[in-house]
Each structure stands twice: as C-alpha cells, then as structure tokens.
Write a structure and sequence with these properties.
By secondary structure, the protein is an all-alpha fold. The protein has 4 helices and no strands.
C-alpha cells in the first residue's frame, strides 16, 4: 500500500495589497441586498403584494417631488438698449483692452538689457552740455599754432 500524503491546500495568488481582502461573493452589499434577501425569505411562498393605482401614483408623485429634476427658471442676463447681454459686453471690453495692451507693448521701444530709456528733458540737457563742450574744444584747437609747409 502506498502512503497517502496530505498535501497542503493550494492558495490562489493574491497581490500583497489584497492579501487581507475577503471574497465578497456571498456577502450582501448594502441595504438593498439585505432587504431583498429578507423579503425573499419571508415571502418566498406568498404572491407579490398588489399596490392600488392611487397608492402607486402617490408614490410616483412623491418620488418625482423628492428626486425629479428641479425646473428652475433660465438665467436672465441684463441687457443693454441694443439687446446685448452684459457678460458679452464684458468679454468684448476685456478683449479690446488686451489688444490695446499688446499694441502698446509692440509700439514701445525695446531697450537692450543694462540700458534705459532717457527722458526727453535729460536728452535736451545732455545735448546742450555736449554742444558747449564741443565749442570750447574747437576754440582751443583754433588757438594752437599751425605751421603749413
């Protein structure tokens, strides 16, 4: 006779994160399944209960009142004399402002890094000072002795 060895039961592969998870095949989920199972056990031999038409319509009306889509008034927008809504006017003005700022930035002179735009008053003062300095140097240059050979 061959000895029969008792092999350990084979366990199915599970990821580590699901190692402690129990199978839910036979566990009822939520209240609905438990209610259905209780109703099935209690009234297994009984026929389905009949509901009168008035009760059914009352239940339907109650459910519609509780869960139905709420019929809200469509949002009314304030309009100007031409009939244009305020939000469209705002979008249009914002777009015009953005375009104006872009045009100003394009027209503004570009200044290289490390330099600055000199205001017109400073330019005028600097030019006057340079002209005076140029006139003084020219006068000194004319006083130099000059020999033509």
């Amino acid at each position: 006779a061959l000895p029969i060895s008792a092999a350990p039961p084979v366990e199915l592969f599970k990821l580590k994160q699901f190692a402690d998870a129990k199978p839910r095949l036979h566990d009822p989920k939520g209240q609905l399944r438990s209610d259905l199972s209780k109703a099935g056990e209690e009234g297994a031999g009984d026929a389905a209960e009949e509901v009168s038409l008035e009760e059914f319509e009352a239940q339907v009306a109650d459910l519609i009142r509780k869960h139905g889509k709420q019929q809200s008034q469509p949002q009314q927008f304030s309009k100007d004399a031409k009939g244009c809504p305020a939000y469209l006017r705002k979008i249009k003005s914002d777009l015009q402002e953005k375009q104006r700022l872009e045009m100003e930035s394009k027209q503004r002179p570009r200044v290289p890094a490390g330099l600055r735009v000199v205001p017109p008053e400073e330019v005028k003062e600097t030019l006057e000072h340079l002209k005076k300095k140029h006139a003084e140097i020219e006068a000194e240059f004319r006083r130099l002795p000059l020999q033509i050979e």
